[in-house]
Specification:
The protein is of the alpha+beta class. The chain has one domain. It has helices at about 5, 15-35, 70-90, 95-120, 140-155; strands at about 40-45, 45-55, 120-130, 135. A four-stranded antiparallel β-sheet has the order 1-2-3-4. A hairpin with a 2-residue loop joins strand 1 (about 40-45) and strand 2. Helix 4 runs antiparallel to helix 5 (about 140-155). The radius of gyration is 18 Å and the shape is globular. It starts with a helix and ends in an 11-residue tail after the last helix. Pfam families: Peptidase_A8.
Length: about 170
């Protein structure tokens, strides 16, 4: 059996990363063009579109740092992206769930890297709140990363994996 047959070449799932990147960058461009910075636009109860710029990481972690965090997060995301591609390439035929999780995280990471390189910050615009509690604004890339990470966590609790020699 060839290596490609054993692994099932999960690289074919990279189209989903490209879709995440296109949707993410497209919605960020629309938000930047149509919204005024910091001015919430109510969409429905508990949800606004609010254009914000995040120079930090998740939940604005390190946003107040002196600027070094931009290059740190770019480098970190690129290193993680390379690791994710190698991990994706090594998956077995029956590990489709893991492949989807990996490419969602990869697409989200690269969408946010683009923002950091081009703008120096990540464009966020999805803003949920409850009474006076406001969840930090986020974007499509963040959503893909969160869904991918959630899938990986769920995978830990799923049924045991098939042995390498068994078919899907």
């Amino acid at each position: 059996m060839s290596d490609t047959e054993a692994t099932g070449s999960k690289l074919r799932w990279l189209w989903l990363s490209v879709l995440v990147i296109v949707l993410d960058l497209g919605t960020k461009a629309m938000a930047s063009a149509m919204l005024t910075y910091g001015d919430p636009v109510p969409v429905m109860p508990m949800f606004n579109l609010t254009l914000l710029h995040n120079t930090g990481a998740a939940f604005s972690f390190l946003a107040g740092a002196a600027g070094w965090q931009r290059w740190f997060f770019i480098t970190l995301a690129l290193v993680v992206s390379v690791v994710l591609v190698y991990w994706l390439k090594s998956l077995r035929r029956h590990e489709t769930w893991s492949a989807i999780a990996i490419v969602l995280i990869l697409g989200g990471a690269l969408g946010n890297v683009y923002d950091r390189v081009v703008h120096g910050y990540v464009v966020d615009f999805l803003h949920f709140y409850w009474n006076n509690y406001h969840f930090p604004a986020f974007n499509i890339a963040d959503t893909a990363i969160t869904i991918g990470a959630g899938m990986m966590i769920l995978d830990i609790f799923r049924k045991p994996r098939e042995p390498d020699g068994d078919p899907e």
